[in-house]
Amino acid sequence: MSLQIFISVLFGTLFLLILIFRVVEPAYILLFNKPLYIHWYPFSKKLGPSQRQILVNDFPFYNRLSSKRKVYFEHRINEFVAKYEFIGKETVVTEQMRMLIAGTYVMLTFGMRKYLVTLFNKIIIYPSSYFSTVNQAYHKGEFNPRMKAVVFSWEDFLLGHLISNDNVNLGLHEFSHVLHFHCLRSNDPSAIIFFDEFNEVIKYYSDPTLNKELTRTDYFRLYAYENQFEFLSVILEHFYETPHVFKMEHPELYAHISRMINFKEE
Asked: pLDDT category, 187, cuts 50, 70, 90?
């Protein structure tokens, strides 16, 4: 192949990619309400045997994935651990901490193409609830945009992870705040879909009729009604912990959440 032909093919390929992302994908999103593609990793990164065993032992979501999607999941965990710093406060950061925390975030964002965000750059881990000088109170976890940090009490994180049917999951809760803030500010395809569906979801918080229906079933804990941010986080905890009950009690709201994060169980 001559250099001229090679250059022509290269520019033709680039033009096609630009066409796909600027013309085809917006039309696809409009028609199907999801990005054109989610996972594409030419050189996927695998976990080590001991890291993978932690997921096999302690992460049911990972075990339910197909072999192909497990490869995607492991790659994203590797990318997460490489991007964000894990800091132990009065505790030593272990491989189990890294795998379970990274796995929770990857699980939440698994249906989104852009999943690594810049709103935080570190995970701070305390052994148990910690005293915050900001509001002079003890916390179990928080997302602190000013510090660019997500903070966890490991005791409470682990309890929320291991008890998988009580609809209380500290990791999902705090990472939901991160995702919410990111999608309010970003314009990537997944964020746009998230924001559109969030506008539908939040009606269940603000509309008196829809809200009355939620409180009638008494499915969501009262903390969901503190504000719209907590409403979304609590709902996402329920979506992952008791999806079958959620779908039965509130099918339309469940469908909005499923589209919002572009995820369906296999």
From this structure: confident
Q: What is the pLDDT of residues 192-230, one digit of tens each?
A: 999 999 999 999 999 999 999 898 899 999 999 999 999
Rounded CA separation 106/115 (Å): 8
Kindly report the pTM of this predicted structure.
0.90
d(CA 57, CA 46): 17
State residue 12 phi and psi, 5-degree precision: -65, -40
Task: Determine the length of the chain.
Answer: 266
Rounded Cα distance between 246 and 265, Å, is 14
State how far the Cα of 124 lies from the Cα of 126, in Å rounded to an integer: 7
Check the CA dihedral 100-158-180-259 and report its sign.
Answer: positive
**For the chain, counts of helices (H) and of strands (E):** 14, 6
Token output for 228: 């719209």
List strand residue ranges (DSSP E) for the chain, in order.
Answer: 85-88, 122-126, 130-132, 137-139, 141-144, 149-153
31: left (phi over 0), alpha (psi -120 to 50) or beta: alpha
149: Cβ–Cβ under 8 A, 6 or more apart, which residues?
120, 121, 122, 123, 124, 143
| Backbone CA torsion sign across 131, 134, 135, 140 | negative
